[in-house]
Amino acid sequence: ETVFENDGDPITLIDQISDESEEKWFDRLALNEAINSLNERERLIVYLRYFRDQTQSEVANRLGISQVQVSRLEKKILKSIKDQIAQ
């Protein structure tokens, strides 16, 4: 079962946080816990990017920040999720 779906298409959050060499069978509970540990804005970015499949520019407009800021935040969020799951 894919953790994230958008209109029936799998969303590749797992691909974003896993190394190519790793098997992509991350524990769903661990992923949910990692997302729940994010702050509200970070969770919104994850939701819009990976659940709603919005572009960084669309997310930036929604949050009133620049696309560059969204890109930086997204990298930080993905690292945070990956670090938590790796523990």
Overview of this structure, please?
With 87 residues, the chain is mainly alpha-helical. It is 62% helix and 5% strand. It has five helices and two strands. Strands 1-2 form a two-stranded antiparallel ribbon. Strand 1 and strand 2 form a beta hairpin. Helix 2 packs across helix 5. The radius of gyration is 13 Å and the shape is elongated. The two termini are 23 Å apart. The N terminus is likely disordered.
Number of strands: 2
Mean pLDDT across every amino acid position: 78
> How is the main sheet built?
2 strands, antiparallel
Helical content class? 55-70%
- Distance N to C terminus: 23 Å
How many helices? The count is: 5
Strand content: under 5%
